[in-house]
Write the structure tokens for this entry.
Amino acid sequence: MKKILNLLLICCIAGSAFAQEKVTKQPVFDVHVHTMKVNPAWLSSMCPWFLSDMPGADPNEQAPFFMNQDCVDPLPPAKNDQHMQDEVIKRIKDFNMTMIAFGDAEVLHNWADAAPKGRIIPGISPGTLTVEQFRDSLEGGFYKVMAEVAPQYQGMSPSDMTLDPYFAVAEELNIPAGIHMGTGGNGMANLTQPKYRASLGDPFLLEDLLARHPKLKIWVMHAGYPMADHMIALMGANAYVYVDISGMIWSYPLDEVHAYIKRLVQAGFGKRIMYGTDFMMWPRLFETSMGVIEHAQYLSEDQKRDILFNNAARFFRMDKDDFEWPE
Ligand SMILES: [Zn+2]
């Protein structure tokens, strides 16, 4: 009897050690996390890949509801600011995650304080800041990344000269910049963002900016979806441009998401694709989005590791001295 108990014990310890190994040993880098205050008016659960069935709408009828909530297992939103923070920090620990996070400054400081050292890497976007204020913020040392820059929503090209002095500061200070290009949801221009233009998500619009700032390291947020041809041509011509697959990975039709990632990998850019979520308010979004890469049949284990961690660690020049590098 004792022997059996011992055996059981050994197998259980071995089993839990294995389980632990699996979650803690494989590091994950999420390069696109929004920090925002929980607004009870916005709180709604979300069905991943909800853009799979675009409605046949009419301007004389009620505006179509943006988010489908009719699925077997919708992701619930965080209940309040503390709940959101606790859930994010729990995932950083459980899934061995590092995150590039940006948005509400107060929330960002709280998360950075609560997270293990270096696991929240703060980003800042020019927003309404003057160029001097933007420079001061970056020189202050807290912010390490320029993101999310989203001129597409203002009806502006990323190469617009009004943004140029900000990118010049990022180039001078060796700060990587993330620019929203491509995705815009469903009926964005009609429903919530009248200045949004699909054409301003064209990756080719980055060429002038890149030519003016040869040392600027940029990543194209949302991978210029769905303009794969232009994205591939741009990455071919510019050796330092990376992409993230955030947002699209959990909102557009799943087959379409896989086809897009596969296309970029097939075109030879497996070392320039970074994993990201575009996290806003649904804590389970992290594991839902990771699962897309984990279960991708067309990716080798090495390619999955590159997308989930290695590419971002390289892009953001993570240093073993100031970062507890997960083995
Ligand atoms: Zn975006």
